[in-house]
Task: inverse folding
């Protein structure tokens, strides 16, 4: 499409607004996942199974894994061919936008594999930069090609004009080094139909995404956000949390509201075990994406809001219940389904990173 | 699905009934098509372009040809990933069935590459036997696995209980050699929701499909059929036409009607030129699928009935107009769009062979 979503009257809905369905991309990469991605596949199946009780789920899978995925997934999950390297559809998938007359379109952001962090370790751009286009084809949705590098996990919106992101990611020279903060803000407004950008500083410590906001903070509904939190002074996340809280509490959203900031406990620091570092393939340059002792960026905030439930990562028995209580209180109309997600965490993200909503195009 | 379509109250609609859309599979095989299938692709594009003026068209294409197909096809044609060898979706695609309450399901017939004629020349069964399943996934349609080998081009139905096929194909030992005529009839009835099977004898001479009916005869509507015809005593098709006419005129359909048999002239015999035999790849055993002088099975009957038009193959200037006149007279509510289809003919079929309708699931 020529033009921009905002110029054409479109906006990105909040994740908490009604969905027509959810996309997931099957994990297959032996260099991103251990043991040929089979343990990760089992975790993805449980995520798909949970969400499919709430809305239609489509899983994209390469031809060579199609039969395996079809056999592993519940019958009511649709399985379509989609050639991929990465399996984080939040990031390389499209951002859907809707207008007040019931139309739906899609934004296809540029994807450079998280600022080329993984080049040349386990990255081939060709397949993954095409995923958004292909998903929009499947959905028969017209496409806007956005002129900036952006992963979906680096933004959250309230659907009423407000967007939250982090400076660490969106102002990182490895994404859009030739653009100013103002230029990036203008592009975000134009392609998400927002007016106000709330900038947090850093994202989660050691996040390979350069600080995606979806591991730190998210909207519950307009005016209400959840924020990862620790009271432990020695935790490296302490400073990130304090700074984010200050900025959120000082912010005013697009409707002039102050934000109600609710705190979700972080799990104790998580590290890759020696066992978890085995079974990951080396790439052509001999490098590895996984080493024992890696600090894993674990956050309960990385949940997915489906129509009828929250698909929440279970991360540590010491903190799962406390985190669940805050989330359940924030979403009284949805049940909270906890899913063991250690295998997804080992790949570098969690449930929010592996899902992408298709918002309902119905009239409001 | 357990059970059968007929047992569950489903029937295969006539092609002339309302469609929700049409599937096409992109030609890619260098052993089936000359010059890397690029000339065939241009012909397929024109077929897709014509049908897309009438209904939604989806083209399935392998990952390696996705960008090329996307660029070549009109914007309103949907392009999805689908790994294939053959590109005759009439034959390896599903047969859709509907019921009176507005539901749609699909029949997945066994596919053995036209009775293994092409083994080992240019055949790999794995991809093509999966195409029907995958298309049913895309359409979110439940699937019946039919227990016989059958290509969609070997049957035509009137949607009111009558099916036409040929003995040459369906009774051929290379398809279902272990089944009797009665067993095959019972299976056809069960999986298409028909009651009466009208058996023609041979199909078109030299047809590599072993005589698919869709190169010889088709329904215009219940009670009316079109039949390929020649008055030339020396034409090898003369005997086939006479026999088919006798059988059709002697038949009674499921509603007790005699058939109105209308004759469509055959083009003069068509042969592969030396130029047309170049550019076809040899396969691993060194064989070729194309030799100069091959008799090409050309038939105007191999048209496609879309909602608002007939996509008709143009085969020979000496006969195109006469054939078009009969077809236009038979379908007064549709425009007849002639499409140069020599390149499709060179691959072994024509427009009907490369299309598969998705019937509307609306209430009748």
Result:
């Amino acid at each position: 499409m020529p033009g921009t979503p905002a110029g054409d009257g479109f906006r990105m809905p909040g994740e908490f607004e009604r969905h027509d369905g959810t996309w997931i991309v099957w994990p297959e990469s032996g260099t991103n996942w251990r043991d040929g991605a089979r343990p990760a596949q089992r975790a993805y199946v449980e995520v798909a199974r949970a969400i499919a009780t709430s809305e239609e789920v489509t899983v994209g899978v390469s031809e060579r894994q199609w039969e395996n995925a079809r056999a592993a997934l519940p019958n009511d999950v649709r399985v379509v061919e989609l050639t991929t390297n990465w399996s984080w559809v939040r990031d390389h998938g499209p951002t859907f936008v809707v207008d007040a007359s019931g139309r739906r379109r899609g934004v296809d952001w540029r994807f450079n594999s998280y600022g080329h962090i993984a080049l040349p370790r386990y990255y081939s751009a060709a397949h993954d930069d095409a995923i958004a286009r292909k998903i929009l084809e499947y959905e028969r949705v017209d496409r806007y090609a956005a002129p900036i590098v952006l992963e979906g996990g680096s933004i959250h919106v309230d659907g009423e004009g407000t967007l939250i992101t982090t400076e660490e990611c969106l102002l990182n020279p490895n994404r859009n080094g030739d653009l100013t903060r103002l230029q990036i803000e203008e592009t975000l407004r134009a392609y998400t139909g927002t007016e106000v950008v709330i900038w947090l500083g850093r994202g989660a410590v050691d996040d390979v995404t350069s600080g995606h906001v979806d591991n730190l903070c998210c909207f519950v509904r307009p005016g209400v956000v959840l924020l990862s939190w620790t009271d432990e002074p020695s935790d490296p996340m302490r400073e990130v949390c304090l700074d984010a809280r200050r900025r959120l509490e000082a912010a005013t959203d697009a409707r002039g509201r102050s934000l109600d900031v609710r705190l979700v406990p972080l799990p104790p620091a998580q590290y890759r075990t020696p066992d978890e570092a085995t079974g990951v393939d080396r790439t052509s340059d001999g490098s590895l994406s996984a080493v024992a002792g890696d600090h894993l960026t674990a956050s309960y905030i990385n949940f997915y809001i489906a129509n009828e439930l929250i698909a929440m990562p279970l991360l540590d028995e010491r903190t799962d219940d406390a985190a669940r209580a805050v989330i359940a209180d924030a979403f009284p109309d949805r049940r909270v389904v906890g899913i063991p997600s250690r295998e997804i965490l080992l790949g570098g993200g969690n449930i929010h990173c592996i899902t992408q909503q298709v918002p309902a195009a119905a009239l409001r």
Notes: The interface with chain B takes residues 56, 62-63, 66-67, 70, 78-83, 127, 130, 133-134, 137-138, 140 of chain A (CB under 8 Å). Residues 10-359 of chain A form a domain with the L-arginine/glycine Amidinotransferase; Chain A fold (CATH 3.75.10.10).
